[in-house]
Specification:
This protein has 104 residues and is α+β, with helices and mostly antiparallel strands. It is built from 2 helices and 5 strands, in the order αβββββα.
Length: 104
Amino acid sequence: MVDLERIKAESVAYFRSLDEGATLRYHFRHADEEGGLWYFEAVPDRGELIAIKQAELTPAGRLHRYSWEHLDDEHGFLTDQALAPEEDPLEAIPAEEFQRVWTQ
């Protein structure tokens, strides 16, 4: 039997340790086909870029935020896939732009 509480606790601990220990952060934006905007704050871990914060601004203007403090809800979840800016349509953005969206 899968222990979902243990898995969630391990995920929270992993993302929290990345966030609290990060010395280098990258910020990206992605526009989806429906007109939504996705924002990511990512840190390097074992040769990959791992999203530690993610914000979705829907076409209707709703903001959904995910991090180790709030991994998921009925609208979505913090991605568990490494970001690949060289392959995915991600646009590098300044940290200030990410922060402006994250804190609104």
